[in-house]
Amino acid sequence: MSKLTVHLVNVIKLLSLQHDNLKNISDKVVKLQFLSVFKAITNFGAVSDNVEDKISKYWLGKSVEEVIDEADVLFSQGKYLDVYELLNRLKFCNNVEVQWRIGRALFKLSCQNSINEEVRNEMIHEAYEIIMASLNTVEDSAKVHKWAAIIIDRKNGMRGLEHRVKNSEIVKNHLIKSCELDPNDVTAQYLLGRWCYEMSNITWFQRIISKLLYGDPPQSSFEEAHKYLSRAEDLHPRFYLQNTYLLGKTCLKLGQYYRAKHYFGVVGNLPVHNDYERHCAADAKKLLKRLDKYSLEKSALFYEYPFGTNE
User: Fold this and answer.
1) Highest taxon of the source (predicted)?
2) pTM of the model as a whole
3) Distance (Å, whole) CA 201 – CA 173
């Protein structure tokens, strides 16, 4: 190992030791960006699998699999910065299981209100670069395609409506691929259903304006949205308030009023975890009142005989 490499390693270790004194998430992220310079100078990403394994064990004292397991535990506890700090040391090992998890952690961090806009943009940009590198490495990872869809949509949404519209078909394709590779991923099914609902809910006037300004938005249907949202509900009933709420709204669009009433009633009994879910629950309550005339009595569940009782 060259003197320059040794020096860089010592600097990184120093930064790691000092990270407890950093005052906020923004400072930590800036310090961690030093690893990018380390890669560029030492060509860290070009090591062989054997050397890669030795370096990871030397640097962390654990195997990559052990690090991933630890990161998953931290993620389940909502400690997204800790996940990033842990996995970022293996960022350049060309392991897609590490890379998509880094992208996921960065996305979750970017959603926190304490993050300023500049740092949020940097996080999403870094997540985008990592997930695109993963896509260039493998094509058959459901997780990579799912998080590619999420991160690409967020990145383009931050750039403006024009970029989001122009890249929305790419987002759908990644979600479809994710669902094909893992039909039991309830989150991917929900996201695809939501995408179809949003595209179907665009009015003809909005489509005209969009065509003039940005180009034709993609086409979908409420039937397609219902397919994926109901699939998510079947896989894991009531797993996600927003899925049940959106399934109710889709049934409403399709004229399935009794089903819509059922789903809106379910939403009212589910716990809420954030402001958006509170909004969904409140809206479901209002829509439920509008559907009071659709009773779920026995007569509503069967077709009436087309003949009079005296015939």
Assistant:
1) Eukaryota
2) 0.74
3) 19
pLDDT per position as a tens digit, 28-73:
544 444 344 334 333 334 444 556 665 665 555 778 899 999 999 9
